[in-house]
Specification:
CATH class of the largest domain: Alpha Beta
Low-confidence stretches: none
Strand order of the largest sheet: 3-2-1-4-5-6-11
Strand content: 5-15%
Number of helices: 11
Order of helices and strands: EHEHEHEHHEHEEHEEEHEEHEHH
Shape: globular
CATH superfamily of the largest domain: NAD(P)-binding Rossmann-like Domain
Radius of gyration: 20 Å
Structural class: alpha/beta
CATH architecture of the largest domain: 3-Layer(aba) Sandwich
């Protein structure tokens, strides 16, 4: 075990945290993850990994907070990781308009505190900053790469640009291995339930089992470059193994509208989405990002990375998962163990 690499992942309980920690554990890494101390600590996604790897001493969780710089510095000094992946953020764009201060603090000061801890470490630590396609703004219908202009349209995007640029500054100023992954939308059955793709697939399962009757969404014409999260964390890993620290776009090179997602998802269970879905301005963003399409040719050429799961396969994977989830939910409702709710997520 002494030969194992050590990784620290912030945001380990999220979708990407699950897939990344799983990948690294399977590569014999010792993985440390940060968990925010709160009244409701949700480790549901990584509970199977905890059960399998924690008894072996390969998965270790720590209470820490990106807004507590001293705890981050202490943690980095204690763990002495080889690699740090900063995945933690308030990552819901709509919520970032409602909570702009918290979103910005985590995205800027949190990332910077982590960079400072690594900068002052005696060990040469590789650092991955989770940047986002939201930084581009989606103003024009063009393919976006590492050199495309950054035009933020939300507090979330603005905070990501700050951390992205600071990572570049630290890399160039202090000769540090700081790499930025500019990932376009990536989904999975582990996606948060407030994100549009998961709202759709979860609603389909509940509609099929009579728990829910309709679904209300925002802009159905928004276009996104959607990929599978499991493929994208492999890209993160490859960035960190590359001989030089650089910035990388990960994307499928295809864009699909929310309507297209709805059509494929509902058709997979022989339903017509137009019978169940409504659009409401309540769920529109104050500053809409209409179109995102990524050019990942650099990563494909230099990292030998490419997405393996197609858009259609991704949609089916998520629908199948949420059909089973709804079946379990229906059993609990029928046995009066929980009460049904028809509330639409944020």
């Amino acid at each position: 075990m002494s030969s194992s690499k050590i990784a620290l992942i912030t945001g380990i309980t999220g979708q990407d945290g699950y897939y990344l920690s799983k990948l690294l554990l399977e590569k014999n890494y010792i993985v440390h993850g940060t968990v925010r101390r709160s009244s409701n600590i949700n480790t549901d996604r990584i509970d199977p990994l905890i059960a399998e790897y924690s008894p072996k001493g390969m998965l270790i969780l720590h209470y820490s907070d990106l807004l507590d710089s001293s705890s981050l510095s202490s943690l980095v000094n204690l763990i002495q990781p080889d690699e740090v992946y900063n995945l933690a953020a308030q990552s819901h764009v709509n919520v970032s308009f409602k909570n702009p201060i918290f979103t910005t603090q985590v995205g800027t000061l949190g990332a910077l505190s982590l960079m400072e801890a690594i900068r002052y470490s005696e060990k040469r630590i590789k650092f991955y900053q989770a940047s986002s396609s939201e930084m581009f703004g989606g103003k024009e219908r063009i393919m976006l790469d590492e050199n495309s202009p950054l035009i933020p349209k939300s507090p979330y995007a603005a905070s990501k640009i700050f951390a992205h640029h600071m990572s570049q500054i630290y890399r160039d100023s202090y000769d540090l291995f700081f790499t930025n992954g500019i990932l376009f939308n990536h989904e999975s059955p582990y996606r948060g339930e407030t994100f549009v793709t998961r709202k759709i697939t979860k609603a389909i399962g509940r509609i099929q089992h009579g728990i829910q009757s309709k679904l209300t969404l925002g802009n159905l014409d928004a276009s996104r470059d959607w990929g599978f999260a499991g493929d994208y964390v492999e890209g993160m890993y490859l960035m960190m193994q590359h001989e030089t620290p650089e910035d990388w776009v990960l994307a499928t090179g295809e864009t699909h509208t929310v309507k297209e997602f709805l059509e494929i998802a509902f058709n997979s269970v022989n339903l017509n989405w137009e019978d169940y879905v409504e659009s409401s301005e309540k769920y529109f963003r104050p500053n809409e990002v209409d179109y995102l399409l990524g050019d990942s040719s650099k990563a494909r050429k230099k990292l030998n990375w490419e997405p393996k799961i197609s858009f259609q396969e991704l949609v089916k994977l998520m629908v199948d998962h949420d059909m089973k989830e709804a079946e379990r939910e229906k059993v609990l409702i029928d046995n009066n163990l929980i009460k049904p709710t028809w509330e639409n997520p944020i």
